[in-house]
Specification:
The chain is of the alpha/beta class. Helix content is 50%, strand content 10%. The protein binds iron/sulfur cluster. The site of iron/sulfur cluster (SF4) has 13 residues, from helix 14 and helix 16.
Length: 383
């Protein structure tokens, strides 16, 4: 965390985050600009081309492994408290992309039910059905189930064992410096997440290897904690510090800085009712001017516009069409009402297709979770 007076970024994995100037994250937190690695990617992606992935740590190690065909892991997770929204979709897209870069990549997808309990009070029995839907979502987005281990934190005892190991060397001061004053349950869930991130490097999963963790930048405190723990326990476990790639925070439709399930009118989920999609988008914050006359004369401000952000980051693959929208907005030929309606059509169409795919993935999602429970019981404790 940090103080956001004077525009200093605030990164809080459990609460309000604020980043006005992404460049400051490079100075304040030592995140590396992704442009340094732009020509090393073996393939491109909308999120890379358009600067949504903006920062990383030790990314070169993973890109080298992808190009050489050596083994690496792609690790991230979801807190099963609700359906996918645009933030969780962005993380899932990154996982699918990094899995697709090499046949030697294996995904580890953690269902963070321990965190859902610690942060939201959701019992494991309540989060299970939500988790099935979340897994079907990532399958619908293209995850290859043949090279994925999907497990629940509460069932993967190696993760819980690692959290116990780490708890012996982590002090209250250290946690307070990273996360601020929080309930102990949240500190505990942070150690469990560190266990998640380092799990792929345990002997049962083939030992130390490069690991890429795609996350929203608000999750960087977990990455810093885990990289510190990887260094501390290198002698014992041979850990390599995990790499990470960060996407920008997804603005809510109402313009607040981070889309969150806690804000129902600002959030856009992937199973939203079409009528609600249209209503939410028609009320979205834009970069439009006060009157039509002004808009025609001065043009709009797409860089301040959530509608434009959603075209660019989530719902428009076609680069030429995006450029046209931008230029029409800047030139005053485009008005916000029609622009919102056009976006709403794209979103409704996307959600409809996504949900068709998702419905066909529900059985597979259940099977993957059952398979995860079975693997979680194999191999015994690491202690
Ligand atoms: Fe945003 Fe579209 Fe209005 Fe431009 S015309 S400010 S992109 S809603």
């Amino acid at each position: 965390m940090s103080d956001n007076r004077s525009g200093v970024p605030v990164l809080d994995p459990w609460g309000e985050s604020s980043v006005v100037d992404y460049g400051r994250l490079f100075e304040e937190f030592g995140i590396e600009p992704i442009e340094r690695f732009a020509d090393k990617f073996p393939a491109t992606h909308r999120l890379l081309r358009r600067g949504v992935w903006f920062g990383c740590r030790d990314l070169g190690r993973v890109l080298d492994a992808a190009r050489s065909g050596s083994i690496y892991a792609v690790m991230s997770g979801i807190k099963p408290t609700g359906v996918y929204h645009l933030g969780t979709k962005t993380t899932a897209e990154a996982m699918v992309f990094f899995q697709g870069l090499s046949k030697a990549a294996r995904v580890f997808y953690s269902i963070a039910d321990v965190e859902a309990y610690c942060d939201n009070g959701l019992k494991f029995s309540e989060s299970h059905e939500i988790a099935v839907g979340n897994v079907a979502d990532i399958l619908a987005l293209g995850l290859d189930p043949e090279r994925a281990y999907v497990y629940k934190q509460s069932e993967e005892m190696r993760v819980m064992n690692l959290a116990s190991v780490f708890s012996r060397s982590v002090t209250n001061n250290m946690m307070r410096a990273i996360y601020g004053d929080r309930a102990f349950g949240l500190y505990f869930s942070a150690l469990v997440q560190a266990g998640d991130i380092l799990l792929p490097q345990l002997g049962f999963f083939g030992g130390p290897k490069p690991v890429i963790v795609p996350v929203g930048v608000d999750q960087d405190p977990h990455i810093r904690l885990t990289r510190d723990l990887a260094r501390r326990y290198r002698d014992e476990f041979g850990f390599i510090e995990p790499s990470s790639i960060y996407h920008k925070l997804v603005h809510s439709l109402t313009g607040s800085e981070k889309m969150s399930k806690r804000d129902p009118m600002g959030v856009l989920t992937l199973n939203e009712d079409p009528k609600l999609v249209r209503r939410k988008i028609s009320n979205a914050l834009t970069g439009g001017r006060a009157t039509v006359e002004e808009q025609r004369r001065l043009g709009g401000e797409p860089d301040k516009c959530v509608v434009y952000e959603y075209y660019r980051d989530h719902f428009l693959e076609d680069d030429e069409r995006l450029l046209r929208i931008r230029s029409e907005c800047l030139g005053g030929q485009r008005l916000c009402g029609e622009c919102k309606a056009e976006l709403a059509d794209l979103v409704v169409d996307y959600i409809e297709k996504h949900n068709e795919k998702k419905a066909s993935m529900m059985d597979l999602a259940r099977n993957l979770l059952e398979e995860g429970s079975r693997i979680a019981k194999q191999g015994g404790s690491i202690l």
